[in-house]
């Protein structure tokens, strides 16, 4: 059995929900062709389906509505140097106690989260960042409603309650994690 220390590379208990960098690293380990746009949309879908199925957030940070779609700002700034190109490394975060940078991951024994993330990858992993972006920009999406309410602002939080409600409706219509 994996201990909590293993989950955070020996840095003590991992927060649950997970840091976005841990979820991002799950997807980055799947492909060397993931761009920032695609990664942020995968995290949005992971957060949405987890909220719909489990009822609580997967990520310990808020997703925000930027001009070109849902974004997790801490990841954006960590990976900014990659621009629109593929990301060639795992994401990193800072240990608040030591100040050391490390690459967090999803606990190997967290079968619920790993199972959901595998499903997200199966359903959305072959789509491009542009295709995923078009999907997140649908007229009935949480991103669209936040952008419509705040057209001149970027970086407005997309409320988890709104994300959950949207994905619950999709679940009730028979969609299964995509």
Label this structure with key terms:
7% strand; 46% helix; three-stranded antiparallel β-sheet; disordered N terminus; globular; 178 residues; two-stranded antiparallel sheet
Structure description:
There is one protein chain. By secondary structure, the chain is mostly helical. It has one domain. Helix content is 46%, strand content 7%. The chain contains eight helices and five strands; from the N terminus they run H-H-H-E-E-H-E-E-H-H-H-E-H. The protein has a three-stranded antiparallel β-sheet with strand order 2-1-5. It has a two-stranded antiparallel sheet with strand order 3-4. A hairpin with a 2-residue loop joins strand 1 and strand 2 (69-71). Helix 3 (36-54) packs across helix 6 and helix 3 (36-54) crosses helix 8 (160-172). The two termini are 31 Å apart.
What does the secondary structure layout of this molecule look like, with pairings?
Elements: H1 4-7, H2 20-28, H3 36-54, E1 64-66, E2 69-71, H4 73-79, E3 93-94, E4 101-102, H5 111-124, H6 129-136, H7 142-149, E5 156-157, H8 160-172
Antiparallel strand pairs: 1-2, 1-5, 3-4
């Amino acid at each position: 059995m994996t201990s909590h220390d293993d989950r955070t590379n020996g840095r003590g208990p991992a927060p649950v929900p997970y840091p976005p960098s841990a979820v991002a690293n799950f997807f980055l380990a799947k492909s060397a062709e993931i761009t920032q746009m695609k990664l942020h949309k995968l995290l949005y879908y992971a957060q949405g389906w987890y909220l719909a199925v489990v009822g609580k957030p997967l990520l310990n940070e808020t997703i925000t509505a930027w001009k070109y779609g849902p974004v997790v700002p801490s990841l954006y700034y960590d990976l900014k140097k990659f621009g629109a190109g593929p990301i060639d490394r795992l994401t990193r975060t800072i240990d608040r106690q030591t100040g050391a940078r490390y690459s967090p991951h999803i606990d190997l024994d967290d079968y619920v989260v790993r199972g959901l993330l595998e499903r997200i990858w199966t359903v959305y992993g072959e789509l491009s960042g542009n295709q995923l972006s078009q999907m997140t920009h649908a007229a009935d999406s949480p991103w669209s409603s936040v952008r419509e309410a705040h057209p001149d602002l970027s970086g407005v939080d997309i409320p988890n309650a709104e994300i959950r409600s949207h994905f619950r409706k999709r679940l009730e219509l028979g969609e299964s994690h995509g």
